[in-house]
Predict the structure.
Amino acid sequence: MITGAQLIAPEGYLSLSKGITYYFLLNDPAHNRARLVEFNHQGRQIKPSLVTMTTFEFEEGLEAGLIEEVRSVDIYPPWLEPIKGVEVSHLENCRRSDKETYDQKVNRRFLKIADLVSRMPEILASDDPDAIINADAKAQSPKQNPARLRLWFYTYITFGRNKWTLMPRFHDIGGWDRDAPCYKRKMGRPSSKGKYSGYRCDPAMREKIIAGYVKFKSSFKTKEKVYRNILTEVFGCIATEKGSSVEFRHPKGNPYPSLSQVSYWVKKTYDERTRSIGVRGEHKTRARLADEGSFSEKLLNVNQRIEFDGYNISQKLTGLTEGSAVDSFCVVRAVCVLSGAIVGIGFSEGKENLAAYRMCLFSMAQNKVRFCKLFGVDIQPEDWPCEGLSGGIVFDRGPGAAWDVEPEIHWLGTFEMTPTFSGQSKASVESSHPRDKKTLDQPTSAKSGLNFVEMCKREIFQVVEDNKVSDASGRMEERMYAAGVVPSPLGVWNYWSSRGRDSSIGMLFDDAVKNFLLKLPGKIRQDAVYLYGRKYRSADLVATGVFDRVAKSGVIPIEVYVLTMCMRYIWIEVSGVLYQLGMVRTQRTLDGDIDISLWDLEHLDKLRRESIGAHRDARPATVQHTRDRLKKQTGKDWDEEERIVGRFAKNEAHRRDTDDYERLQGKRK
């Protein structure tokens, strides 16, 4: 039994009383084991060691209080702390040598463990994960150092599946090329027909296999028929009798693949869903791969699969300037399929769009107390404990079709869009939407007393309420009732998350801002950062001296990250570091002036520019009108004057006029 320990889950660390740090990888009840990994520091050498205990011991330690959960997550390796929060592009600009960029180095390392990452559940569920990783290291081309590959694999899956955790501290070493022409014999495990029976599957053979599969795959053909077409049509083989059996051979003795080799390389090239669609069709694949019965029956962890969907608020809102009834907005929610808990929320003006989905992902990645403060909402950590992205997400086809998922591969495992002819593909999130009571009376219209931002605050509290009061009895296990778990989404989430069954993927706040928030052009002037006429500033940004540098040139264009439905804060990146800026307030600023949406700010900026333009256009006429009034009352022009060369003479006339002026002033009698 582990004593005196602290557990940070998911993917956190376990600190024993001896001072050793263990990182939590997996609690796998299906195989009755929990996995922990320790990173031993020996100078510049970092060695991972895997520790295994039974699930019973692990959960008993949690329930007995011998292992205590701490609500924080390490999402960056401790040996990379010096560059935490600094943009890689800035580090790149500081380098003297650019033979290979940091991005190239990291991508190269990730490619080495990509296959292992895709097999992570299989590896962690095995009796000896290190042996599988060692075998993969030896099987790669070029051959990898097993200890180094274990370090890369455990580091990547432990610290948020972020590829930048693979930043190197040493040079990579070379190895042998499995596809080199000097290797002629067949590689891999021995065949039942003999150790070296069959032919080596070189790159040329692999290209033919994939080309043949693409050409002959069909939902009306079996796997064996596709294999026969590939061998006969692509490789030119024929079927001949050999003793009492029949087998394929090539008339000229050229190499050809076996059924296992074709299956292996097709699986290596395409994922299971793509292969199934190719041979079964879209709808049969969905019927075969989808869950039967409850959507949560085949899930082990919370945040393992998340469904996204949006709904429109039925009430009209109160306009910011005139207080009239204006159209409402769309609210996008992300719902955990296992627990039914709402784990993220986003907003968009008008119809459902990708920007609202990205804001929802941003809220998922963040600590909810910090996220709500961006809207001026104060909640407690226990009100909304969900934090972290999910590797499996389901989007609507409309917004999802416009999302480029390739930049998100460092955390995104599977991305699914709802298919056509499938109205119940997102039942968990569809059933969680608030609904108005329907009547058969004459239709009516309702106007809320809230504006855009105030309605956003209400929807945030609606999420907190729904997580506490919604019925989640259909997601409860029998032992959960015995443990006194409240049958609500929040109760189900807390129960499984406290036992390490949490697939949440952490992301740095700075990375979430840059990945998910809307980017707009702004300007840095000598006193503040300007966005649509509104000023933003922070003490940390002032300390960098950027405003002193701006004073010399007047203005610097910059990209600004914003939350579209609340313009209380913005974010900018300076010298590779992201800064959060708050609106500059004066003694005359009201609280309601801070919390406005981006569209309200754009409208106010339009009014500001129109007012300044109108004032500028009216200035000449106003000046002329004043001068005309003077002439009407005095009979003389505003600029009426006499100009000579030199000075005016001080003669007798000047002296008499001076005396008259002084007598008028009472200076003389």
Summary: The longest strand covers residues 33-42.
